[in-house]
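Slide 14.
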Amino acid sequence: MAKRKLAMDQVRQLEVRTRMLHGAERAVFVVVGLAVGFVVVATAIPQKRHLEQLERKLEQAQEREQEVLAERESYVIEHRALREDREFLEIHARDRLNYYREGERVLKFRKTE
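Slide 15: predicted structure.
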């Protein structure tokens, strides 16, 4: 009977050790998982900042592109008017050369930028 009790005590001790090892394994797994998660997040933060900088540069380039396209369109319209509209051509030439007809009042406005 004493041997049986001794064997039962040893089995219980083994069970307790096994439970402790399972608990330790779970704790190590959680710690390793958190460490991997932190590493992934830490490497993603600089990439996110770089992406945001690139997106800002893209927005600025698109705004500048729209400005240039609008300016180009203005030049195309002016060129077409100079080529096809005689009245516009006369007005433009007189404005550049400072010519005016007798009795005509010319008002000039300066651009302020």
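Speaker note: The chain has one domain: 2-97.
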